[in-house]
Amino acid sequence: MYDGGKIIAGIIIFLAFALFPFYSNIGKADIKPPKPSLDTPVIKALKVKKCVEPEQYMRESHMQLLIKWRDSALRHAKRVYVNSNGEEYVISLQKTCLRCHSNRSEFCDRCHKYADVDPYCWDCHFSKAKQEEQR
Amino acid sequence: MSINRREFLKYAGLTCIGVGVGGAQLFVTRVKPAFSDFKPADYALKAKRWAIVIDLRKFKTEEDYKKVIEACHSIHNVPDFGDDKQHEIKWIWTEDFEHSFPHQQNKFIPKTVEEKPVLLLCNHCTYAPCTRVCPTKATFKRPDGITAQDYHRCIGCRFCMAACPYGARSFNWLDPRPHIRHVNPEFPTRTPGVVEKCNFCVERLDLGKGPACVEASEGKMMYGDLADPNSEIRRYLDENFSIRRKPELGTQPAVFYIIGGEEDA
Questions:
Q1: Which of A11, A78, B149, B212 keeps 20 to 30 A from B197, CA to CA?
Q2: pLDDT at B31
Q3: B188/A53 CB distance under 8 A
Q4: How many whole angstroms separate alpha carbon A52 and alpha carbon A57?
């Protein structure tokens, strides 16, 4: 092999860079899945503890549902959501979602931080905690 | 091991199918709700063409105006910047007669009319120039005549502000939150970089309540369906002479003013 030493050294340097994220995180992989808290006064007072749709669906697809809710309420003046069980809910992030999930930092933020996403819902919409902060 | 062209193509085809099926699995295994639907509330107020009548004859004191403005601004979390006109956010405000109706000005209108503040708000024009220039369709006409705005989609280009002949739109230069005196937790605020305006209380109409300003005016204002000849608002317009702001522009404003003479001061 011509210039074998240089090539091998180059490969080692390349691998050192390319694999940096892997070896630098060895041993730190014990980050536990987030546990969003449902411990709010409104949820505690509910007789049947359930969201507008099944838990698994909400966990995976709440963002798509929220976008549908937004367009339905704002664009089509349809402010009632009929869920998969035929139950009706008023479409409102603040009056419906955040009324129960009033604990932003323990509910919303825990998963969002884990998934490294930064939605800007709260730039405009009030979460209960934020209001208390303000007062 | 040697492989001929025919076999290679076979394996390549099988690999593609395998990857495709595996990929499709990712989507199939997502939980979806069995059935869901969206509908207007049964108790929503509906109309073909919403409009507002402001009977300026009935506005007598400063308090009358203040009550109406306060009702709107507190419900919609409109920030108050005091005398700082550069950052002012306007949903419903007052202006003198001359600047409200520039083409109606003449030397000989009654002093009381000339000096009386006029209550201004978005005119929810039939041919709204703001909706025509919006590059993202953030502001749009609802089928019931209301000029609505979706703040999620507003990019803050301010074309609509340039297009609106009534100055009914305001831009958020600053974070409005520190300037809101009483927060209404049931309505969102806005964020720096979006344009906002009166929304004809769509969030209230859709849930069966009339506009907040009309409610707070205690009969000095009126709302209703302009397309229904038997509506209260149409009868009122039949019985009282009304004017609109800058009708010559052809925007067809849906806010009507009834102006009184000396005896209504």
A1: A78
A2: 64
A3: no
A4: 10
